[in-house]
Amino acid sequence: MNEQVKKLIEETSTSMISAVDFLENSLKKLRAGKASPQMVSGVMVDYYGTMTPIEQVGNINTPASNQITIQPWDKNAIGPINKAIMDANLGFTPKVEADLLRITLPPLTEERRKEIVKSVKKEAEEGKVSIRNIRRNSLEKIKKTKDNKENPATEDEIKQAEKEVQDITDKFIKKIDEVVSLKEKEVMTV
Length: 190
Description:
This protein has helices at residues 3-28, 78-87, 110-144, 155-188; strands spanning 44-47, 50-53, 58-64, 67-72, 94-97, 100-104. With 190 residues, the chain is of the alpha+beta class. The strands form 2 sheets. A 4-stranded antiparallel beta sheet has the order 3-4-6-5, with helices on one face. The protein has a two-stranded antiparallel sheet with strand order 1-2. Strand 5 and strand 6 (100-104) form a beta hairpin. The protein is elongated, with a radius of gyration of 22 Å. The chain starts with a helix and ends with a helix. The model has no long low-confidence stretch (mean pLDDT 87).
């Protein structure tokens, strides 16, 4: 097979792996009944005038299945961390206790669990759209390889590459369905 076509197929696979990883990381932030440090990851704290990730201003722990604690390395950062969590609108309110913030997660209601599952499905659909966009872009690039002056791809190579790209796409769409199914079970388990 043409080297340029092989490289495009590898790039397709790599891009799709990244899309699935992005989805998995997004789903980790969704609350599924028990506390996780990922639930506050991505929160940006105004730390002495610089927007800083919360992970860089304090230690995040889960001492109990329904609690998250954040112990700032600088005691003056408690206020800005508290404000950042409130501004992020994550659905919980931190409580300041001496030199740390404690977040106690309320139990999930059936209605809230269903809302989270809807959110999971929405994220999954965005992931699938991303995979399909990667496929479309790859197929366009593969078709253009026949116009390459130095080493044009043959029609057979292009057809084979298109089939490989479709197989890779199907594999990653199936992977997204598996990830979503696991997350739904996790969310709906009481």
